[in-house]
Known about the structure:
Blueprint: H1 2-32, E1 42-45, E2 53-56, E3 59-64, H2 68-85, H3 87-90, E4 97-105, E5 108-116, E6 141-147, E7 152-158
Parallel strand pairs: 1-4
Antiparallel strand pairs: 2-3, 3-4, 4-5, 5-6, 6-7
Amino acid sequence: xxxxxxxxxxxxxxxxxxxxxxFWGCYAKxxxxxxxxxxxxxxxxxxxxxxxxEFIGDIKFTQRIITSLEAKKAKSxxxxxxxxxxxxxxxxxxxxxxxxxxxxxxxxxIVYINFFIPTKYDDPSRFxxxxxxxxxxxxxxFSLMLNLKNETCFNFHVNHEL
Length: 162
């Protein structure tokens, strides 16, 4: 009987340890983006006058309002995405103006993120009002999309050089 009690106590302790480690892993991952700060170069589009439609496959996404917490999560995920896909851009991320636009369709929430390094001719007041459409410019301009639910990055696009 004592042998059986001993095995039960070990199993309970192991189960408790496994649960504790699982919760800690989730907590650490969930907290990581909350420590991200949005700075003066981060612009969240909450303006319904900006009409954005994006098609991914056959699904039409329309603009939606995103929270600052969603923008922080998007910034964290975008930093990871850029680091994995383009190390040279990642090294100079702090130079970019970053614009966040929420998109939604069929309960799928996407964040479109536009990155660009402004020139001396850019009017800073436009950064919160419009998303520049630039055909060239190399890595001074790039964009990506994030699915917030499954934390995936897609449509990573760096502009071509002139």
